[in-house]
Design brief:
- The protein is of the alpha/beta class.
- It has one domain: 3-Layer(aba) Sandwich (Rossmann fold), CATH 3.40.50.
- The chain has 13 helices and 13 strands.
- It has a seven-stranded parallel sheet with strand order 3-2-1-4-5-6-11, with helices on both faces.
- α4 crosses α6, α10 crosses α12 and α12 runs antiparallel to α13.
Length: about 375
């Protein structure tokens, strides 16, 4: 999937993005601007300090609406004003540990936020005011019931039952999307057979994402950056936990590709695992070692395992055969390249570089 092909589709498209001020949302917003899209963002204020959305100077270049996806009237007003062709749903409470502290808020955001957005789409279809062509709901690789079976790679048809409130709320978001699709957005549904336009909807279950500009708490790369810049060894909480790490540009490009391709062939819609190759599922300790290698200058890490830490799966890997077969897709960067490019981004930021220009160059290099 190259830049020209994506630009041919997205140029001039009205695109509604929830969660556009977050880490992944900021990268996606910049990509859409580069592709010529007219971007309408709806999200809370940027969640960290510093934060990528401001670093990339995006606020004045898009239709920027601060709002909560739990606030249905506000969300509906912003959605109807945008009249989108394409919708990407990224807004979420995304931190596992925070979901243990704030379970109700996590479910409200991740489940009812999805319901509210799909209800906006349903009502727009019924009214006929405009036609939403394509929708991608971004969930997580943690939606599956995970019994920590070594070497097992989850497939899309396996049971959805995430363990912790974050993971489980994303499982629920998947089920909500499936229910709305079957009930309202298929020709066989009770409301879909009367000639009204039907958007095409998919969910994307992405693996653990790394990349420049992530400043969140309780994520391994931001922790590496903070500790290293403070002159301290990196404290790794779960050094033996295996995760499918990938650069943020991998899943974002897949989301853009799915949204485009399913408009050409409705049968391509569905649920997709979005992860790296099996060789890129590594332990957190191995990821920290790669970070240290590329950062240099005396960077180091040490185990900081917690005796009574909240439950997190020890082993997680995705089978992405469906995505590869359906779209003839392959990852671009393996995990070592992903870490290298991530470290280079933070180094450039540390040195005061123009990060908008740097990030655009990284995107162009990735897309080819």
């Amino acid at each position: 999937m190259d830049f020209t092909e994506l630009k041919d589709f997205y140029s001039g498209k009205r695109v509604f993005v929830t969660g556009h001020t977050g880490f992944k949302g900021s990268w996606l917003t910049l990509m859409l601007k580069m592709l010529g899209a007219d971007v309408y963002g709806y999200a809370l204020e940027p969640p960290t300090n510093p934060e990528l959305f401001t670093i990339l100077r995006l606020k004045d270049e898009i239709h920027h609406e601060i709002g909560d996806v739990r606030d249905f009237p506000h969300l509906q007003s912003a959605f109807m004003a945008s009249g989108p062709d394409v919708v990407f749903h990224l807004a979420a409470q995304p931190i596992v540990r925070d979901s243990y502290k704030y379970p109700r808020e996590t479910y409200e955001t991740n489940v009812m936020g999805t319901v509210n957005l799909l209800e906006c789409i349903r009502r727009s279809c019924a009214s006929g005011d405009f036609m939403v062509e394509s929708v991608v709901n971004v969930t997580t690789d943690k939606v599956y019931e995970n019994n920590d079976i070594p070497e097992h790679a989850f497939r899309e048809e396996e049971k959805l039952d995430g363990y912790d409130p974050y993971s489980n709320s994303k499982s629920c978001s998947e089920l909500v999307t499936h229910a709305y699709t079957k009930s309202f957005f298929t020709a066989a549904s009770e409301t879909g057979g009367d000639g009204m336009h039907l958007p095409v909807i998919s969910t994307a279950r992405a693996g653990n994402v790394i990349g420049g500009g992530d400043f969140a708490n309780d994520r391994i790369i931001p922790d590496c950056v903070r500790d290293t810049m403070a002159g301290k060894p990196i404290h790794v909480r779960n050094p033996y936990s295996t995760r499918p790490y990938q650069h943020v540009l991998e899943p974002l490009t897949v989301y853009l590709m799915i949204a485009m391709e399913q408009t050409k062939m409705r049968e391509r819609s569905g649920s997709y695992n979005v992860g790296p190759d099996a060789c890129d599922a590594i332990t957190t300790g191995e990821l920290a070692e790669l970070f240290v290698k590329y950062w240099g200058e005396g960077a180091s890490w040490q185990s900081a395992a917690e005796a009574n830490a909240p439950h997190e799966a020890n082993f997680l890997r995705l089978d992405c055969g469906k995505l590869k077969h359906t779209f003839d897709w392959q990852p671009v960067w393996h995990v070592e390249e992903a870490v290298r490019e991530t470290v280079r981004w933070y180094r450039a930021w540390q040195q005061g570089s123009d990060m908008r220009a740097y990030t655009e160059a990284q995107i162009r290099d990735f897309l080819g």
